[in-house]
Design a protein that fits this description.
mainly alpha; two-stranded antiparallel sheet; 67% helix; globular
Length: 244
């Protein structure tokens, strides 16, 4: 019971609030639909597919095609690299946290991608989303104490399976502390699915400019984070988000 009280009374930074994560996950689902439908039939939020495609191309002797995949893989790597180095200098030299600045960067990237014509090389959009997805994945790590990913669904599906197994194992127990984690991962998966549905609808309606729709949820997140940085969390700059 004491652990429950401590968890309830703990103050979570705005960048750790679960609604922020649900919103980012919705955008990730939208990005998945956008890149698959309009930018080369690929998913850019993670890199497993690119590594497999690279291996297949190299195995077939298609060297040029195989080494091309180093571009998106390197973009993803650099996103993680920079997002690991930048947070401390940002919070010590700017009045905002890295989390807030990152959302601003993502909004700028989305605004630019909306101007990219459908005839342009798909790699422009792919590499851009590779880069920002990696930074986001490495920055937003825990939603109110529970580790979650905001750019892909695989781990959430696994965690739902684990949670359901625990529900069965502890069916008769009165206390079910694992249930909150199960519901959090289920929520993330459903929001990702919702984002993919919305992304498909708008991509079919507006083609490449559909990505501008994500500026709305990004804008809400940015406003909330900026307000916290400048007011309620102004004196908490040294407090690290969970998982960092």
């Amino acid at each position: 019971m004491n652990k429950k009280v401590q968890a309830r009374d703990r103050y979570y930074l705005m960048c750790e609030r679960k609604w922020i994560y649900y919103t980012l996950m919705t955008v990730a689902g939208f990005f998945g639909a956008y890149t698959y439908l309009l930018r080369g039939n690929v998913f850019c939020n993670a890199q497993t597919g690119n590594v497999v495609l690279m291996g297949m191309a190299l195995g077939a002797g298609k060297w040029e095609e195989g080494f091309y995949y180093l571009i998106p893989i390197t973009a993803y790597l650099m996103g993680a690299f920079l997002s690991e180095l930048v947070p401390n200098p940002v919070k010590h030299h700017l009045p905002v946290r890295w989390d807030t600045l990152l959302i601003g960067i993502e909004m700028l990237a989305v605004a630019c991608l909306g101007f990219v014509p459908e005839s342009a090389p798909v790699q422009i959009a792919q590499v851009t989303i590779n880069f920002i997805a990696s930074m986001q994945y490495n920055t937003f790590r825990q939603a109110e104490g529970i580790p979650v990913a905001t750019t892909f669904a695989t781990n959430h599906i696994r965690q739902i399976g684990v949670g359901l197994a625990k529900e069965l194992q502890h069916f008769h127990d009165k206390e079910k502390p694992f249930r909150e984690k199960l519901l959090r991962h289920l929520g993330m998966l459903l929001y990702f699915l919702f984002g993919a549905v919305v992304g498909t609808v708008f991509c079919n309606l507006f083609v490449g400019k559909a990505i501008w729709i994500t500026l709305l949820p990004f804008g809400v997140i940015f406003a909330a984070l900026l307000h916290a940085d400048l007011t309620t969390e102004k004196n908490m700059v040294e407090k690290k988000p969970s998982g960092h």
